[in-house]
Specification:
Elements (H helix, E strand, L loop, with lengths): L1 E6 L4 H12 L3 E7 L8 H4 L21 E4 L5 H8 L7 E4 L13 E3 L2 H9 L3 E3 L3 H15 L6 E8 L14 H4 L4 E2 L8 H11 L6 E8 L6 E8 L4 H11 L6 E4 L14 E8 L2 E8 L7 H11 L16
Parallel strand pairs: 1-2, 1-3, 3-4, 4-6, 5-6, 7-9, 11-12
Antiparallel strand pairs: 7-10, 8-9, 10-13, 12-13
Helix pairs in contact: 1-9, 4-9, 5-7
């Protein structure tokens, strides 16, 4: 049984992680830390956990664990690890962006299983990828693996309100977000750097001219990314390339049909559709930002690190409605 500790368990990613781990057959949650909620029951914050657990948030952390999940805001994981000495032998999976880039990675491995599965299995520390980065990288990795990425990549990606975190802001307030759509951080989203690094891992000569237009959608969860690249490959060649690349990756699936975001909500799947229009290739990629884009992928990484079946605790089904 793998003993787990969670730091920063009061946010959306923390709540989703708790739900997954409570149902995981090989996991025991030892503690869930939250300074602002210490003493409160988990279900006081995550109401859907009522009836599932009587655990309370703690202020302190325990060293009697095998793996520590950090569900802290960006910048806070690094501070936490500087202020708290973690016992040697405890594995760490960080869901923030603090260690994703090579320049700041220290001993952390970039935790995209479809790119680094072998390395993840032997890693001590994992930097869990960003949600936009996951959807976009999975859409492009097969092309990069054969040096087929063109110089220019155009992307439109829309995300649900949970991607902004639990703290209320002007652009996440229901009355503003519902029935609305808006562009933000055009051409300069923070995930662009990790996307570029991952693609260059497979195609070192890639120039990294990625033009990303992120959008806020009027729904709660999910990311739907549409990418346009030039490709001389035929539709059949592209399908074979993508199918071959992902044949040993149980959560990523390729379709020649159009996708719906609802196909991936509440699952750890990434669905990718490829459609050829003359010399243009349209790639659509859909994930649940809280699962494959955050907590589900973190559990997937934990499974790999502890030599468990990769899909353990993650065989989740999307709702038809």
């Amino acid at each position: 049984m793998t003993r787990v500790g969670i730091v920063g368990g009061a946010g959306y990613a923390g709540g989703e992680l708790i739900r997954l781990l409570l149902l995981h057959p090989q996991v025991k949650i030892v503690f869930v830390q939250s300074k602002s909620n210490a003493g409160n029951y988990l279900y006081d914050v995550h109401a859907d956990l009522f009836g599932d657990t009587d655990m309370q948030f703690t202020k302190e952390i325990s060293s009697e664990i095998d793996v520590l999940f950090l569900c802290l805001g960006h910048g806070n994981s690094k501070v936490f690890l500087q202020e708290n000495k973690i016992k040697k032998g405890i594995k760490i999976i960080d869901l923030s962006q603090d260690y994703r880039l090579k320049a700041s990675a220290e001993n952390f491995v970039y935790g995209l299983p479809e790119l680094n599965k072998t390395i993840i299995k032997n890693a001590e520390y994992i930097a869990n990828p960003g949600c936009f980065a996951t959807a976009i990288e999975l859409a492009l990795l097969p092309l990069a693996s054969k040096n087929k990425l063109p110089d220019n990549i155009f992307i439109n990606a829309i995300t649900g309100s949970t991607g902004a975190g639990q703290k209320l802001s002007e652009t996440s307030h229901f009355s503003w977000r519902a029935n609305n759509i808006s562009v933000y951080k055009a051409f300069q989203h923070q995930h662009l750097d990790e996307i570029g690094e991952s693609l260059k891992q497979l195609q070192p000569e890639f120039k990294g001219n990625i033009k990303l237009i992120p959008e806020r959608g009027g729904f709660t969860r999910g990311i739907f990314a549409s990418l346009i690249v030039e490709s001389e490959l035929s539709a059949d060649e592209l399908y074979q390339l993508y199918a071959l690349y992902y044949q040993n990756h149980p959560f990523t699936h390729i379709s020649l049909k159009g996708l719906d975001l609802k196909q991936v909500i509440n699952t750890n799947k990434c669905l990718i559709s490829i459609e050829k229009y003359q010399n243009d290739l349209l790639i659509t990629s859909a994930i649940d930002n809280l699962l494959k884009g955050a907590s589900g992928q973190a559990v997937q990484n934990m499974n790999l690190m502890f030599n468990l079946e990769e899909t353990t605790g993650l065989k989740l089904k999307a709702s038809a409605f």
